[in-house]
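Write out the 3D structure for:
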Amino acid sequence: MEHAMREIVADPKLVAFCGLYCGACKAYLKEKCPGCQKNEKAGWCKVRTCCIGKAIPTCTDCTEYPNPRDCGKYDNFIARLFGLVFRSDRAACIKQIGEIGLEGHAIKMAELKMQTIKK
């Protein structure tokens, strides 16, 4: 028997450090991932590790790299490949968080049922 899927809800705690919205991610919705903020197995993610080390909720609050595209942890080969394959623009997510806040971003992404802003 298949598990019931979670509902997409607007929750600022489901915004990943890189700006993606875990609340609309298939793995999160199928209860296969707790979301970026709670995923302690995601030690491989340099963005997550960096934000935790700086005690900031997302790259939006980084003072070292105001533009995430200038950060090698944020904009690396794997991230560019992921963005190309999935047409994902994480930097647009970070920009949106800066403009409307974490809660506004969560609301907008939940309404659109999207994990990322598409390129």
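The radius of gyration is 14 Å.
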